[in-house]
Design brief:
One of its GO terms (molecular function) is cysteine desulfurase activity. Belongs to the class-V pyridoxal-phosphate-dependent aminotransferase family. Csd subfamily. Helices cover about 40% and strands about 15% of the residues. It has about 425 residues and is an alpha/beta fold. It folds into 2 domains: about 140 residues, Aspartate Aminotransferase, domain 1 (Alpha-Beta Complex); about 260 residues, 3-Layer(aba) Sandwich (Aspartate Aminotransferase, domain 2), CATH 3.40.640.10. It has a 7-stranded mixed β-sheet, with helices on both faces. Helix 2 packs antiparallel against helix 11 and helix 4 runs parallel beside helix 5. The structure holds pyridoxal-5'-phosphate (PLP). Pyridoxal-5'-phosphate binds next to helix 4.
């Protein structure tokens, strides 16, 4: 496992930690929302805007070519990161949400109809849920939810009952942003292929790609989406992976410059993937952060990152499960993502978050873009502490100790 001396070295790379002083600590436990950035990533973007900035794909001049090189280099890095077959299978988007919307518009609206079923889990982030609600409403396809058991897992029976020949799309998270549950998407997709060979499988990897090795070929998914900003890279650097035949069978999402082949007065022809899905001037600055973030994660090792984050979660879970005024919502056992979601008896999550913030601890409070999941537990919101490789066990301790501050200020007494 990563040693505390290694974590100390890693922390030196993260400028935001300079904000943390003895008098005014800053413990960032909201990496599931967005991660902080190492200086290497910030320097790459600085370098791009200082010395490599030009209109990508269009010019014959030096800086345009430099920008194209940065952009296409990022595509190559992402291809290798997720084990895709070719760079053509990597479409840059703003984020996971945009990737899912692209699929909803370009595949869902075009291919689904009444009688078809879209299978998704109750754990989905709204990005992988509201999008399919829209498609269902427009096409007449039906949404079918996979529910979870007390272990916060989708039971095999649920999968075998709900994925049927009528299933035309499986839209599933690889790691829940609320529960930390990591469904066995590979087995689910294999089952889908057996019972409905023409169906497509979309995997939401927003919370998985930053924390564990991903191999899209091994998963055999048709599409995979994630957000660079949740894995040390910049906001605006999102990825949609698609098997090439799937992508080239889809019409473009947005129309305009840089995605066309020929344009006539009355019609146009379009580039093949990925160009046809990247209309307009792309966010090369954001893309420039991806190879550096990927190198950074790979240098530590995603297996080691997952192991270390699990250690932090196990520690928090063990301590918090002794507290009878706290209900833990997230998954009780490993494997699980790097987060713990909980509620204080009789205290609103916003109060918990505000009190912790007064002690320099940043957690998330609210519904975490998963209202149906919260409603299925009979609640509306929760608190979430999420961890990354730059967190320490001492920070987790500080967080746990300060739960007493919540008790004190809310008049709950000490435990
Ligand atoms: C599981 C999951 N999917 C999708 C998203 C959407 O990501 P973004 O807001 O970067 O598009 C998130 C963001 O929190 C998420 O946790």
């Amino acid at each position: 496992m990563l040693q505390s001396s290694e974590i100390r070295e890693i922390r030196k790379d993260f400028p935001f930690l300079e904000l943390s002083t003895k008098e005014k600590p800053l413990v960032y436990l909201d990496s599931a929302a967005t991660t902080q950035k190492p200086r290497q990533v910030i320097e790459a973007m600085n370098r791009y805007y200082s010395y490599e900035n030009g209109g990508p794909h269009r010019g014959a001049h030096r800086l345009s070519m430099a920008a194209t090189e940065v952009y296409e280099g990022a595509r190559e890095a992402v291809k290798n990161f997720i084990g895709a077959n070719s760079v053509e299978e990597i479409v840059f988007t703003r984020n996971a949400t945009e990737g899912l919307n692209l699929l909803a518009y370009c595949w869902g609206l075009e291919n689904l109809k009444e009688g078809d079923e879209i299978v998704l889990s109750i754990m989905e982030h709204h990005a992988n849920l509201v999008t399919w609600q829209y498609v269902a409403e427009k096409t007449g396809a039906k949404l079918v939810y996979l529910y979870i058991d007390e272990n916060k897992e989708i039971p095999k029976k649920e999968i075998e009952e709900k994925i049927t020949a009528k299933t035309k799309l499986l839209a599933i998270t690889q790691s829940s942003n609320v529960l930390g549950t990591m469904p066995d998407v590979k087995t689910m997709i294999a089952y889908l292929r057996k019972v409905s060979p023409d169906a497509k499988a979309v995997v939401d990897g927003a919370q998985a790609a930053p924390h564990m090795p991903v191999d899209v070929k091994d998963l055999d998914c048709d599409f995979y989406v994630f957000s660079g900003h949740k894995m040390l890279a910049a906001m605006g650097a999102g990825v949609l992976y698609g098997k090439l035949d799937n992508l080239n069978a889809m019409k473009p999402y947005m129309y305009g410059g840089d995605m066309i082949e020929y344009v006539y007065e009355d019609h146009s022809t379009f580039l093949k993937a990925p160009g046809r899905f990247e209309a307009g001037t792309q966010d090369v600055g954001a893309a420039s952060s991806l190879p550096v973030a990927i190198d950074y994660l790979n240098a530590i090792g995603l297996d080691k990152i997952h192991e270390y984050e699990s250690y932090l979660v196990d520690y928090a879970y063990d301590a918090m499960s002794q507290m009878d005024d706290i209900t833990i919502l997230s998954r009780p056992t490993n494997p699980r993502g790097g987060l713990i979601t909980f509620n204080f008896k009789d205290v609103h999550p916003h109060d918990v978050a505000s009190i912790l913030d007064s002690k320099g601890i940043a957690i998330r409070s609210g519904h975490h873009c998963a209202q149906p999941l919260h409603r299925s537990f009979g609640i509306h919101f929760s608190c979430r502490a999420s961890f990354a490789v730059y967190n320490t066990i001492e920070e987790v301790d500080y967080f746990i100790k300060n739960l007493d501050e919540v008790r004190r200020l809310m008049g709950l007494g000490t435990r």
